[in-house]
Description:
Layout: H1 11-29, H2 38-58, H3 70-73, H4 77-84, H5 89-96, H6 100-109, E1 114-120, H7 125-137, E2 145-150, H8 156-166, E3 173-177, E4 180-184, E5 191-195, E6 204-210, E7 214-222, H9 230-249, E8 256-262, H10 265-278, E9 284-290, E10 292-295, E11 303-312, E12 322-330, E13 333-348, E14 352-360, E15 374-384, E16 392-405, E17 411-415, E18 424-430, H11 432-447, E19 456-465, H12 476-481, E20 487-492, E21 494-498, H13 507-510, E22 516-518, E23 522-530
Parallel strand pairs: 2-3, 8-9, 19-20
Antiparallel strand pairs: 1-6, 2-6, 3-10, 4-5, 4-20, 7-11, 8-11, 9-21, 12-23, 13-14, 13-18, 14-17, 15-16, 15-18, 16-17, 19-23, 21-22
Amino acid sequence: MLTWHFCPTTHTQLLASLNSIIYGIIYGGLTNPKLLSYHQINDSVALIHSIRQSFLRLYTTMITKMALPTTIEKLDIDVLQNILARLSAVDFASADCVSRSWNHVCSRILCRPKFASACSNNPSLLVAIEEVANEVLSKLIRPQFAILSVGSLFSMQEAFQLITTKLSSKIPVIVNWSSGFIGRDAFYEEFKKIPKLESGIRGIVLTVGCVPGMKVKSISLQKQVEEHPQDFMIDKFVTDIWEFSTSISGRQSPAALMIFSREHPHVGINTVEKLDYAMSPETVVVGGFCYDFRHTATEELACDAVALVFVADRNKPPGIGETKFHAALSSGLSPVGPTYRVDSVTEKYGCMAHLIVHREGPFEATEMEELSTMYIGVTKRRKCSVGQEKEKWMTSLAFHRILSTGTDNEYFLVEDVGVKTGDTFQCYLTDSNTARSSTDSVSNLVRSFNGSDKWEVSGGLIFASMHRGQPNGDSSLFLENLPGVTFAGTMCLGEMWRGDLIPQESQEQKSAQGCFLHRYNAVYLVMSYAP
């Protein structure tokens, strides 16, 4: 297990770390003279023997006094940084705990954000976890959070136990049952999209991230209980985010939220409406609905959703630049037909709604044969508040799949609840041509990050509909525009987006700014850094 805090280290651990760090790395430098000079190598080799002898002499006192040999401190800082910068995550974690000076050097090395990711479709969960963890931890990274998406044929609880053992219980870890994955294969170094099959899916993708200058915490939305209705729980979820952000940054709204939610219609709609009310326009929100999830936040009750909360640290060390989050939406839905207004709503079984509607404007013939690929996009205007905060009107857009309609579209039976009398909506058809065109528009925005002398891209994530497009259609946006940037993706039952990257053509997205609940779309998160 990796430990990322300064701590006393036992004789055996220190000796093992020094063997790995100094013997392996410095002797490796003999094969590449550009890394270390001849005199530096000779001095370092002599230092190895001095350090080992010091450890042997101090063995009997290490239990009561964790004092480090002074010879460690004599290693030149530049040489030490050169050595430590080439370690794997595991060895780097050990070096991070050797002494305060080594910890300081490690912090200097990891002053920029970094992503590491790998996927595996090995049929054995144990082997798959081993493959992706070894690949990710072979990189130089100090994880601050981890996301593991697993196939439905694997045990999520077992996956959670395995990955937290491999990483650490001290960092936020979220494991979710996914409808598919996008990622780089741990062995073959090629990107692949692993979709859900009829029998389910075996496969995993692991992503870990390091964001110096920021704090990351997982905060859960707990299920309602008899004494606390769901609205109370959502308010508590929002205020927990506020309190964490305020304690770290001095500002109520965090930099970004990454949300994983069970597909509970009422909870999802109400939650994003509250978040849109509660968060400043600069807060980026991305996420998706999944079958189920586990996370490391302490919880006494089961939860409906969990958010990774990213907050800028007002006490960040000097020399750390600014990390920003950007989010874009590639739509796969095309509007068809007229606008309708809802005259009455009857909710059924808590998971669907029967709408009596009338058409606004002139009649337009609408083909309704393929109902399984059609949605209504409902524009909702609601009064919203959190706790005792002042109410204000909020406008949002949410999509509901059409289950059936009347002969003349006088009624609609749709999935999910939350539609109210007076709401207006338009029908939307899933359209691969629209998806490609929208992806091209977003691609132009993302391409603007490439080659910038002010910002550098550190990584990216994709939350894509399980029903979208070609095998590598969604991943091509990163592969073609940001080559070399680490990214990964998960396929969702529904997508969440509230971002700052909006193509000029996407006027329908601008018409109702907010945390949109989407279908048949892809959400792209880009993390950038300004030194």
